[in-house]
Amino acid sequence: MRRSPARSLLLLPLLLGSAGASAAVFCVGNSSQLAQVLAQSSGDGQADEIRLFIGHYAPGSGGFLAQLGAGDELLISGGWFGFGPCNTWNQLGDVRLTVLDGLGAFPALAIDAGAGAGDISVANLSAINGQSGNHHAGGISIANSASFHGDIRIDRVWVDGNSAPLGFSGGILAQTGDGTVHVRGSVVTNNLGLEAGGLRIGVGGNGQAFASNNDVYFNVANDTWAGGVQCVGSGPCTVANSLMRSNFGRGQHPDSAQGDVLANANMTLLHSSYAVITGTPNAASDGNTQASIGVKLVDGLWRPSGGATLTDTGLWPVPGGALTVDHGGDARVLSGAIDIGAYEYAGVLRDGFEQAPGAN
To answer: What does the DSSP assignment read for 45-96?
Structure first.
């Protein structure tokens, strides 16, 4: 196992702003520093940004946990490198350069948000080998209190090999009351959960949820048919331009059956690719495909290989807004129209060999 990077790039933060709650940027270089800053961000009543130096982070006792209260906001992103003050660091776009590893004992990242907590953002990193424990998801868990109404953004993350045997979601859980949830440009694979295998998002009646241009596959739900994606709560949930394949749900039966999407009347499903859907999304749903797709092995990972059903068939403008780059770091639109899934497929070379993520 790779060791966490032994760097001492902390711990005097760069203070930003002067109006309202102060803001601090923390440069973090190893696991103990990350745990320390997450604890410091819990209850400090300000907006904190954590920049993770590229490397492998494995928690000690208690895992990587933030417990946010009134006035707390938190932004965490990976891929950073440099020396000296945080404002001199640069960021690389490969999400696999920064890895949060739950070691099969803790969630890879848990953010419990209580009443009065503000916005939360997680971007440009990987969450692997997590186990939910007392939290709601094994990979990235953002939710706790019904009185949390901040916005949640999860952009360009790879969430793989996590479990929540007694929790809501194996991969990602993102729930808020009257705020807005965005999950974009992410790959969620090989996760196991009780009620959702891959991705579970939800909002209250005055909120909105958007999941766009994600790949969700090889996930399993133990107790429902929501192996891939599930929307919960009373608010509207839009799933657009997403690929959901080879997910399974046991639905309280001993034999698994494929279940890529668990739909309800609050879900609008747009220009997405799946094989099996349980339930019925609302009547505004349109442009979806259940046609078969091809896959290729790229850098040791299975990836969709594009084709007529995925290339240039996404919805534009993207509901909730689009990122400027795809999961691999290439431009989000490469051939005049957006593709379905986390990647753009115009990077396929003419000899049939696919470029690795970020190769453009």
So the answer is: -SEEEEEEESEEE---TT-SEEEE-TT-EEEEEEEEE-SSSGGG-EE---GG
Rounded CA-CA distance 219/79 in Å is: 26
DSSP conformation letters of 220-287: EESSSS-SSEEEESSS-EEEES-EEES-EE-TTSSS-EE-SEE--TTEEEES-EES-EES---TT-BS
Number of C-beta neighbours around residue 39 at 10 A: 15
Question: What pLDDT does 254 receive?
Answer: 52
- Residue tagged 């490397």 (tokens): 55
In Å, the largest CA–CA distance within the chain is: 58
Tokens matching residue 313: 């068939």
Helix (H, G, I), strand (E, B) or coil at 164: strand
Residue in the block written with tokens 């993350």: 157
Cα distances (angstroms) measured from residue 166 to each of 67, 86, 139, 251: 21, 39, 14, 15
Which amino acid would we find at residue 22? S
Tell me if residue 97 falls in helix, strand or coil: helix
pLDDT digits (tens, 9 = 90+) for 293-320: 887 777 767 778 777 889 999 999 999 9
